[in-house]
Each structure stands twice: as C-alpha cells, then as structure tokens.
C-alpha cells in the first residue's frame, strides 16, 4: 500500500518533510477446520444439505382434464449450502407424462452465510381419466443448531383427471425418471403439422434449366403441326362445292331449329316445320305470307333457276305439313320429314345462290 513517511529534514519554517513510499501488510494465514458430518443416524437419502431449511411440494392444480398440464413445484428455502445439494425427484404413475424440470435459484451470500431458495418445476400431463397419486417426498438435511439429521416429508398429492380416455388394465405403472419411455399419448400433439411446404432459398438458374430448353425447342417442334394444319385448311378452303353444301346445311338447320326441338311432338313439330318453310321463302323471295300461293311460289322459284324436282318436293312438303297435323304418323315419319326439309332447303339455298351469282356476272 502507498504511504507517506517522515523525512529527517525539516523546512526553513520547521515543518516536517514527508516522502512517498509503500509498505506491504498482511492479515496472516487462517486455517479452516472442516468437521466431518456424523455417520451415526445418517439417512440413506441424505444429499449433502447442511443448514436450516424448509421443504415444500405444491401442485398448480389437482383437478384437470386429459391433455391439460399441471406444474409441480419442489422447493427448499432457508440458510445453508443451497447450491451444494440436489432436490428430490417426484415419483408419478406412467399415466402422468412428466417432462424435465426447470431449475431456479434465488440465493444471496451475505456475511452471515448463504440464504435464499432453490426450486425445480416439473410439467406433468395426464393421459387417461382417473385418480393418480404423486407419492410423498422426503428431504433430509443436517441441522447445525441441533447437530442432528432432520427429515421433512411432504404429503401425498392426488391428481384427479375428470375427462379423457380410460386406461387399459396394467397400463399405469410407476414412473421415477424424468425421461418418459412408457406409453405416450399423441393426442396433445395432433395440432403439429406432419408435412411441410418449405421451399429452398437456393433457386436454380433459369438458363440451361429443363424449362429453358423446353421453351427453346418447343417452337421448332410445333412447325410440322403448323404445316399440316395449313395444308388441311387450304384443302378445305379450296373445296368450294363442299363449303357451299356445308353452309347450306347449316342455314337449313338454323331455319329448322324450332322444329327439331319438337320432333317428339307431332302437331307442334309440323307447325314449326311449316313456319320454317315460310320463313325461308320470306328471306329468299322477299314475299309476304299472304302472297304465298302454291302457284306463285312455284313460278318465282322456277324463274330463279330452281330445279323443278326440288320445287315440287318443296310444295309437296308444305302440303304434307297441313295434312300430317291431323293424320296419324310415327316418329320415323316425322324424322324422315325433318331430314327431307333439311335436304330441300339446302338444295334451294344452293340453286338460288347460284342464280344470284350468274345474274351478278351477267350485269
């Protein structure tokens, strides 16, 4: 330690001159004599606790349902070597699933000695309905005041599981460890997803990938199909006669759409068929229904280069519509009349269109 020591000289005013120095001091060696604990009367479960302690075992609740949890708190408080011994472990039936404890220490060390509290908190989950005992626990310590061993015993705790599945016979046994290796119910873990949809954060480059090559060569693979499609379309477009026939049949079926819906009903069918024939004449000849006499219709159609056979078939079909409404007829005859109407309208459409084309060329 640094000190100021008096010097032999004094100042002109008679004051003592001090010099700076240092000095080593020592408290001296101390010998601690540790006495051995007495072996006589020493309990078998003594874990080394020395001092004055209080021991408690307290559950958070004793009435619960299967799958719910309770906390079992085992604590020792008082004055002594709190950090130099282990707490006793509970013994529970296998129907109570017990997990590793959470250890907690609240210890201070003043001059008078170590004082505070240590505790282990166990989480316990029951698996079956019923009543299950948690056996009483003992904590032994050496009391310095009385110089003797003392044992504190906690009361037995009864856990009442009010709801849940019933345990099978012989399924409930004692469990003394914190690692549960007996039968474990998985009911409380059902909320955990067994499958994930995680994706890697490392993505492959698009270049030289399978998708890259597929999109690169796909247009070349489509060229043969495009060529075949164009050839087929050109062949169809070059077939003028076939296209006219298809167009005529399409128009004929358009006029006869209402009649087709009534093929199963004789009288509505022939009414719709006759109406379709009249509408066709209105559209092609520009005449009103009041002007539709058979002679006039025949004369106009023949004047527009319609074939006499087709004109006669058209007139006969209109007359058949009036007659068939009141005469008995079969479904076969109705279908035949429908097919005949499609054919006649299609032929007239082609003949009248051909006449219009010739007239346009002549003018």
Low-confidence stretches: 176-184, 358-363
- Looking at the overall shape, the CATH architecture of the largest domain is Sandwich
SSE pattern, N- to C-terminal: EEEEEEEEEEEEEEHHHHHHH
Mean pLDDT: 81
CATH class of the largest domain: Mainly Beta
The count of helical stretches stands at 7
- Structural category is alpha+beta
Give the termini separation.
Answer: 138 Å
The main pleated sheet reads as: 5 strands, antiparallel
Q: If you compute it from the alpha carbons, what radius of gyration comes out, rounded to the nearest whole angstrom? A: 56 Å
Strand content: 15-25%
Apparent shape? elongated
* Count of beta strands: 14
Outline of the structure:
The chain is of the alpha+beta class and 363 residues long.
Account of the 3D structure:
This protein has 363 residues and is α+β, with helices and mostly antiparallel strands. The protein folds into two domains: 51-189, Immunoglobulin-like (Sandwich), CATH 2.60.40; 241-362, Four Helix Bundle (Hemerythrin (Met), subunit A) (Up-down Bundle), CATH 1.20.120. Helices cover 36% and strands 24% of the residues. Strands 3, 5, 7, 8 and 9 form a five-stranded antiparallel β-sheet that branches. A three-stranded mixed β-sheet has the order 4-13-10, with no helix packed on it. The protein has a two-stranded antiparallel sheet with strand order 1-2. The longest helix is centred in the last third of the chain and has 32 residues, at 331-362. The radius of gyration is 56 Å and the shape is elongated. Mean pLDDT is 81; it is low at 176-184 and 358-363.
